[in-house]
Write a structure and sequence with these properties.
Layout: E1 6-10, H1 17-31, E2 38-42, H2 48-55, E3 60-64, H3 81-85, E4 90-93, H4 96-102, H5 106-118, E5 122-127, H6 131-135, H7 139-150, E6 167-170, H8 184-203, H9 205-210, E7 212-216, H10 224-228, E8 235-238, H11 245-254
Parallel strand pairs: 1-2, 1-8, 2-3, 3-4, 4-5, 5-6, 6-7, 7-8
Helix pairs in contact: 1-2, 1-11, 7-8
The structure holds 2-phosphoglycolic acid.
């Protein structure tokens, strides 16, 4: 199956508008026009407007790190799907930090995925096990449950009904920000044995084969290529290294080499 690789940078809660402008203007020359890979930058909400104008006319896409599923109303501090869609093509949903620190459940993630689809946003849905679950050999159960509940009832319709407008990021939580990445073969096996079959049960095999599944967790310029050589790994969701111009450029280029 020929899935186009995708590399997304999750800046998390970093970068003022001034910092974001500086970083993006340094990054664009190295990333732009590198064909064969979809490139996505996900700054904090406050920097979306500034970054969107810097990315205008480039082939680099913008993503948000979260949204709330309600269309509008009394939800202090939240951002609606339409507000995100004003600037972005992508949105990260269900990141483990949202689940851990803000109590997001699989049901919440599901509502957010539905809302993203309703606004033509491509969700990057994060799933992955904790260290405790990993050590107790529960990875397959946890990841399967997160995939099935998070994507329950999702319908592919309209122009992009082939699955290419849904992205999954497999991020073992014990690998995020720890400098301890999973082994590429282990990550590939989780995708091959659990995630792709769960997508098959949900959407049928043909669509499941078209959905891109990224690896995330301590991806660097040095290890990215080993992940991308795995047949089931279609790119990366990058945290810390997405704030470093040389590293992030190297990761993006590794996806097409
Ligand atoms: P990391 O974060 O690359 O810093 O490990 C990945 C993520 O949280 O998406």
């Amino acid at each position: 199956m020929n899935r186009k690789p995708l590399v997304a940078g999750n800046w998390k809660m970093n970068m003022t508008v001034a910092d974001a402008r500086h970083l993006v203007s340094q990054m664009v020359p190295g990333l732009q026009s590198k064909s064969g890979v979809d490139k996505v930058i996900c700054p904090p909400h406050t920097a979306l407007l500034a970054v969107s104008s810097l990315l205008e006319g480039t082939d680099i896409s913008l993503g948000a790190q979260n949204l709330f599923w309600e269309p509008s109303g009394a939800f202090t501090g939240e951002i609606s799907p339409a507000m995100v869609a004003e600037f972005c093509d992508y949105v990260i949903l269900g990141h483990s930090e949202r689940r851990a620190y803000f109590g997001e459940t699989d049901k919440d993630v599901n509502r957010k995925v539905q809302a993203a689809f309703a606004h033509d946003l491509t969700p990057i849905v994060c799933i992955g096990e904790t260290l405790e679950e990993y050590e107790a050999d529960r990875t397959y159960d946890v990841v399967f449950r997160q995939a099935k509940l998070g994507l329950d009832g999702i319908q592919f319709a309209g122009q992009e009904s082939d699955g290419s407008n849904l992205v999954i990021a497999y991020e073992p939580i014990w690998c995020i920000g720890t400098g301890r990445a999973a082994t590429p073969t282990d990550a590939n096996e989780v995708i091959a044995n659990v995630i792709r079959p769960a997508l098959g049960e949900l959407f049928g095999n043909e669509i499941a084969q078209r959905i891109r599944v990224l690896y995330g967790g301590s991806v660097t310029g040095d290890n990215a290529r080993d992940f991308f050589q795995q047949p089931e790994i279609d790119g990366a969701l990058v945290g810390g290294a997405s704030l470093k111009v040389a590293d992030y450029t190297q990761i993006t280029l590794a996806a097409v080499q």
